[in-house]
Amino acid sequence: MASARIRRLTVTNFRTYHGAQIDAGAGPVVLVGPNGAGKTNLIEAISFLAPGRGLRGATLEDVAFSEGDGSWAVSAEVEGALGLATLGTGIEPPAGEDAVIARKSRVDREPVASPAAFADHLRVVWLVPAMDRLFNGPASERRRFLDRLALALDTEHTTRVNALERALRSRNRLLEDARPDAHWLDAIEHETAELAVAVTALRVETDNRGRDTAAGRTLDGPHLTDLAVTHADKQIAAADASTGEQKALLIGLVLAHASLLAEMSGFAPVLLLDEVIAHLDPARRAAFYAELDKLGAQTWMTGADAAAFADIKAEVFEVVPGQVKPRP
């Protein structure tokens, strides 16, 4: 199975970096350094080579270098599904206080409509510490996690999800009326049902109107989807598992998703794993490294302690505020 990989990453005026560059091989890449040094910023930059707002969900203005002119850029030379290519994205300096900020994307220096075009070359999957609360947090967080997985498979998924949410808000506004207009409800429910089928592949009928009218809102549908995960050996819900067990289950989900992407596309995605070995005991850490080796994907990992990565053959880069360099 072939693997997509980033051969060179370049960031300009991004987060804490005025400028930085990393030349990487095909194997795992480890970024080490103290907390706050900027390790996550580098893998966040890579996450902008995928549709969406990156692994932190940041606004375009948030990621600009504080001492810069408001612009930022991320580019990468990649070896992907279509061979060698250069992907780039970023924003230009704002023309004024009221100027509309627009993200621009290029493939081999030619403009493309959106970062969705990057998926033809590179798929990116990530795991960050904020996801550690996935099993114990609200269902909305698990739906967002599922949507991120689906987006890696289908770059139009987020567009449909957003359209579905707008349709549901419109339906709920109609249902708040004591005598909602049946014709408007027919129209909006037809749109909602179409979008729901596209989002869930299971939804085939419109929600129960009478029950929903009494409640004044939509009580059932894909907007309430939840993710149920069970610890197979113990036969307990993931929410009831220990912190280490939850981390292992979450890593298992992400690696399984990466394997699915590799199977469907013929190319393993690039993995971004932030502080991934936290909470893993030595046995689980060894199993994790074995799974990474089996998958064969280029994996970018971060951690504060280089010794924790002693059992995996990787390129190690040392990160200090604003700088990154190969570790001797």
Global structural class: alpha/beta
Largest pleated sheet: 6 strands, antiparallel
Query: Helix fraction?
Result: 25-40%
Q: What is the H/E order?
A: EEEEHEEEEEHHHHEEHEEHEEE
Number of helices: 7
Shape: globular
Query: What is the overall pLDDT average?
Result: 85
Q: N- to C-terminal separation? A: 31 Å
The neighbouring-strand order within the major sheet is 3-2-5-6-7-8
Strand content: 15-25%
Radius of gyration: 22 Å
Uncertain residue segments? 201-206
Strand count: 16
Describe this structure in words.
This protein is an alpha/beta fold and 328 residues long. The chain is 32% helix and 23% strand. The protein contains seven helices and 16 strands. It has helices spanning 39-47, 139-153, 157-175, 182-200, 209-215, 243-265, 282-295; strands at residues 2-3, 5-14, 17-23, 29-32, 72-80, 83-91, 104-107, 110-112, 124-127, 230-231, 236-237, 267-268, 270-273, 299-303, 315-320, 323-326. The strands form four sheets. A six-stranded antiparallel beta sheet has the order 3-2-5-6-7-8, with helices on one face. It has a six-stranded mixed beta sheet with strand order 9-13-14-4-15-16, with helices on both faces. The chain starts with a strand and ends with a strand. The model is unreliable at 201-206 (pLDDT under 50).
Summarize this entry quickly.
The protein contains seven helices and 16 strands. It is α/β, with parallel strands linked by helices.
Please describe the topology of this protein.
Elements: E1 2-3, E2 5-14, E3 17-23, E4 29-32, H1 39-47, E5 72-80, E6 83-91, E7 104-107, E8 110-112, E9 124-127, H2 139-153, H3 157-175, H4 182-200, H5 209-215, E10 230-231, E11 236-237, H6 243-265, E12 267-268, E13 270-273, H7 282-295, E14 299-303, E15 315-320, E16 323-326
Parallel strand pairs: 1-12, 4-14, 4-15, 9-13, 13-14
Antiparallel strand pairs: 2-3, 2-5, 5-6, 6-7, 7-8, 10-11, 15-16
